[in-house]
Each structure stands twice: as structure tokens, then as C-alpha cells.
Amino acid sequence: MKKYSWEEFARLMGIEPQVLENKEARLLKKFVDEITWPTHCNYCQGLDLSNPNPVHHPSYELTPACNHDCIFCYSNVAVKLGKAPKPGYYGWDNPKAITVSQYGEPLLSPRIVEVNKMLRERFPEARLDLQTNGSLLTRELWEKLDFDVVMISLDAATREKHRMITNADTFDAVVNALKIVGEDKSVVSAVRTIFMPGINDKDIPKIAELAASLGIDEMFLQPLTIHELNVERLRKAGLDFERAESVREFLKAAMEAKKYIDVRISGCLLVQLKPMDPLTLFSVRRVAREVAPLVKRSKLEL
């Protein structure tokens, strides 16, 4: 028995098949095809879809403490649940990249310069990434640091919104940190922003424009992961939980930011989106809920 494609079968029935058009879906697909992931994501196992259990590249954790108390923060959740990693190196020998750090605010630690120097000497071939909220970065401290990639978190375009999200009056200090790092073209600089629809979606293009004006190279835009202990705080702040799980809404925010800066989205997400057809991109949703963040790498004594 001959098998027919759906187009052939439709024509046998006297119907000319038509492909549904969706202009917005085509624009999403074009955008996904054209963008890439942040420099920070290079060498991450999550870029390899054939890896069944990818882990983030190594990190050196200095402290779980932070001078911000962000309404979305996974590090705070880890501390409250007793899951925050102890200070030290979590990774393996011969890493291609190391992040300082994934938990807490590394610039709170008096050991930041010492650890930075130790990692450079111990792993001279590795790319060193600093992940910070930037509020404690000064020019004096910057001159003592030696990183290849610097990511500074900023999730609001105004002092008032920043205070609401972080529970800290540090907006001007963070902007100053972006300026310090943006002026140094020996490093790759990125503003790291979390997409929180209903809270900061209108801020994102403004953050992109501000960062670009300060010489920042990339915007690392990330979708929100909603941890159970943060749900009530996010709800009170106005989070649209439905839109927070929509890939389409996330990509639309990235497209707006792209007008001002080289916007990039998480590599482990992007590699999953690139093979999708336009209509799938338009409708797909992501699982945005999690209970407790965990470090999936073993601690290695240096």
C-alpha cells in the first residue's frame, strides 16, 4: 500500500495544502539562528547535547555571603537550605575555564586577590571569569585583579527598582563598576541580567543601552529559575509566572536588548533552541521551577 505525505493526501482529497504563516515565529527563528552564547559559556559541557549529564565548568567559591538580598537569588536559597558549597575549588585538573564564583559575592572575601593570583599561577592556561554584583568594585581593587571575563549583575535600570530587587542601595556603585570594567579592553565585559517579566522586562532594553554606553561588550540575558523559597517574594514584586516560563517572551526581551548591545543567552539553552522550527520556538515553554541549587562537581584540594 502506497504511503502518502500529508500534502499528497490533501491534494488527493481535492484540497491544496497551505503552510501556516506566523511572522513573529519567523522573527524568533531568525534571531535564534543569528545569536550566539556568552563568552562565559565557552567550554561549558552544556553546549554538548550528546552529554547526558553536563555540569558547569569549574568554580572557586570564596564565600556564600552577599551584601545583596536579591528576590530571585539561588545562592540565598542554598544558604537557607544548608546546601551552599564551602569555600574552595570545585572542578578538575586542567580546566579550560574557572568562575569566581557561582555562590555569594566574591568581592566580600579578603582573599579575592590572593585566590585570583593563585588560580592564575596554578592554571595558567585556564580562562578566569569573575561573577560579581559589582557593588564593591573600586578602581584600586580592579588594578589588583587579573580576570579574562567579568560579569556584573544588574537587573534594573533605576535606583528604586534596583533597591526593590536587591534590597540594597547600591545602584550607583554597580553602574560605576560597569564603567570601570567597560573601560578596560583587555577583558571581556558582560552585564548579567535575569529576565523577570512583570518586574524588569521594561528595564532590560534600558540596561542594555546603559551598559553599551559604558563600554560593556555583552549582555548575558538569562531566564529566571524560580526557587520555591523565593516564590512569595517574586509574587509580591509582581512576577508574571506564566510569561516567566515562555521561551517566546524571553526571546522577545532579548530581541529588544539587541537593539543596543551584543545580547547573548545561556549556551545550554541556546543549543536546544537552535534546532527548533519557528512554530515550536513560538510555543515552547521551559521548566522554570527548582527547589534547591546544587553544585554537581567535586571539591578538589589545590
UniProtKB/TrEMBL annotation:
* Keywords assigned: 4Fe-4S, Iron, Iron-sulfur, Metal-binding, S-adenosyl-L-methionine
Q: Does the keyword Phosphoprotein apply?
A: no
User: Which Gene3D superfamilies does the entry mention?
Assistant: Aldolase class I
The cross-references to Pfam families, in alphabetical order and at most eight, read: Radical_SAM
Q: Which residues form the Radical SAM core domain?
A: 20-264
What cofactor is needed?
[4Fe-4S] cluster
| PROSITE patterns xrefs | RADICAL_SAM
- The protein's name: Radical SAM family protein
- Source organism per entry reads Pyrococcus kukulkanii
The root-end lineage is:
Archaea, Methanobacteriati, Methanobacteriota, Thermococci, Thermococcales
